[in-house]
Write a structure and sequence with these properties.
Largest sheet: 9 strands, mixed
Shape: globular
Distance between the termini: 66 Å
Oligomer: single chain
CATH architecture of one domain: 3-Layer(aba) Sandwich
Length: 540
């Protein structure tokens, strides 16, 4: 027997409808690439997104299901694309601006994008490859000065595209399972793969991320979306923020720690989100300023494991709570968040930091299991390790244009490639990527555990650990370290002694390399593929 409820599809346009009706004067603030401050309201976002819908359909002749690329920073026009492109029945394909030209060429051609919205400051990247993109019919330029010129074919200013359009066109009617957005993986282990999100998945993700036990987004929130809009839809913050009536602050290309701290203070930000390297940069600037009454209360941190010392220092010195989260492009991205529960309040500060350093508990509607080497589901005992598998309404069911099932279990769970365990309270801890585990003399060594501990040393800024070949043990760990103070030194024996209290002797690296910078991927993770290549070529 079916329930007697109305059928009302969950579509992203309804998130903006709600924001417009309930919070019409809430602000969206952008610090544009030229450092000027732009501010407008949800009403402006709503009306301009509707103008975009008209322009896409009537001027560019976009059809339902077409892929439309964006190659842009975080700003108010990109927000309009988030709602206007799906509102026209098309798919908003956010292209990572930090990938190589070859990867970008592959992504655009694989997606068969019809048009690309591109920031004027990024046009020079696209000009050399434009001739290699046969499906792209034209380019819409964002934030361009009047003197702008380009060799891109068929380009037009964004404001010229929408200026004469009416602002009252209805969203194109969509079913909730139809596609609304797409991102590609960063391609660190091969060619990037497309992940196609549905209206339903984006709406449910926004709702759950906003819950009090998760990011606690509400009309009291003032959000600085540091995580790029081209990276997993900015972790869903634009959708969640508009739905909840939050003030949204967008930094565009102003991603320097000094600029971000200025925004936090000037715009009274109480919630921000970014990767650990951004958090470390912000912390370093705050240390020099020591601002009284810092408005920032919560900082969502994900994309890589944050050192416990960073979590501890933010809390003790600035009363800022770093909230560890875990997910990936394939999970929209939030799978878990780590917050303390009431029963943890009586614990010591050290024990609280240990819990907050875990990747956290499953978000509502998300299921996670640990599959051991023998194919069994591991108990939630806090130490039985295996590959993390996940399922849920915003978890990928297949890659775009792919029939391969190698990343899925026989019963349909997504195999993340991450390795970890879950404790009896349901907290997930990632111990490594499957491909980054080091097997030395038949024993497994976690590169992530070594990295986190090395970064706890007061002289260390960053550390990454990779496996290197060994004639006796097959593999041994190599630690690559960046010190906080350039020109200083850290004796090897001191690092080994520092690790000895947490690791068995065989787990401690024999070799340590000190560098000025550790290679990173386009989304700020340690690029271990590149480090292994540099080592093989004798460049480390």
């Amino acid at each position: 027997m079916l329930g007697l409820m109305m059928h009302s599809p969950l579509t992203v346009g309804k998130l903006l409808d709600h924001g417009f009706r309930v919070f019409p004067q809430k602000e969206i603030i952008t610090i544009l690439p030229d450092k000027t401050r732009h501010q407008y309201t949800y009403t402006d976002l709503y009306k301009r997104s509707k103008k975009l819908v008209y322009s896409l359909i009537q001027k560019l002749h976009i059809k339902k299901g077409d892929n439309i690329g964006t190659f842009a920073w975080n700003h108010y026009q990109h927000m309009e694309l988030y709602f206007g492109i799906p509102g026209a029945g098309a798919v908003c394909h956010t292209i990572n601006i930090r990938l190589s030209a070859a990867q970008t060429e592959f992504i655009v051609n694989n997606a068969e994008d019809r048009f690309i919205f591109i920031d004027a400051t990024l046009v020079s990247f696209f000009e050399p490859i434009a001739a290699l993109l046969p499906t792209v019919e034209g380019y819409i330029i964002l934030n361009a000065p009047a003197s702008f010129t380009s060799s891109l074919p068929n380009w037009i200013h964004y404001e010229d595209l929408i200026k004469d359009a009416p602002d009252n066109l209805d969203w194109v009617e969509m079913e909730e399972d139809e596609a609304c957005a797409m991102c590609y993986t960063s391609g660190t282990t091969g060619l990037p793969k497309g992940v196609l999100y549905s209206h339903r998945s984006c709406c449910l993700h926004a709702l759950v991320v906003s819950l009090p036990n998760n990011a606690a987004i509400s009309s009291y929130s003032r959000i600085l979306a540091i995580v790029p809009q081209f990276h997993v839809l900015a972790w869903g913050l634009p959708f969640a923020g508009v739905m909840a009536g939050a003030v949204m602050v967008l930094p565009s290309s102003n991603m320097q720690p000094e600029a971000l701290v200025k925004m936090i203070i000037d715009e009274k930000i109480n919630l921000a989100g970014g990767v650990p390297t951004i958090g470390q940069g912000i912390y370093a600037v705050l240390k020099t300023l020591n601002p009284p009454n810092l408005p920032l209360k919560d900082f969502l941190i994900g994309g890589a494991t944050a050192p416990p010392t960073l979590i501890d220092n933010f809390q003790k010195e600035f009363n800022v709570r770093l909230i560890h989260a875990w997910g990936m492009t394939e999970t929209s991205p939030v799978g878990t968040l780590s917050k303390l529960q009431p029963e943890h309040e009586s614990l010591s500060d050290g024990e609280k930091i240990r819990i907050r350093s875990l990747q956290g508990q499953e978000a509502l509607f998300i299921d996670i299991r640990i599959i051991t080497e023998n194919g069994q589901s591991a108990p939630r005992d806090g130490f039985t390790v295996g590959e993390i598998e996940i399922r849920g309404p915003w978890v990928i069911n297949a890659y775009y244009k792919s029939t391969s099932r190698e990343n899925f279990s026989e019963d349909g769970w997504f195999k993340t490639g991450d390795v970890g365990h879950i404790n009896p309270e349901g907290y997930l801890q990632i111990t490594d990527r499957a491909k980054d585990l080091i097997k030395s003399g038949g024993e497994w060594i976690s590169s992530v555990a070594l990295e986190v501990t090395i970064m706890a040393h007061p002289q260390v800024k960053e550390a990454s650990v990779i496996a290197i070949p060994d004639p006796i043990w097959t593999e041994r760990p190599l630690a690559i370290i960046v010190l906080k103070e350039p020109g200083t030194s850290l004796p090897i024996e001191e690092i080994k002694s520092f690790l000895a209290s947490s690791f068995a002797k065989y787990q401690i690296p024999d070799e340590f390399v000190f560098v000025e910078n550790i290679p990173k991927t386009s989304v700020g993770k340690f690029d271990k593929k590149e480090m292994r290549r540099l080592y093989a070529e004798g460049k480390l």
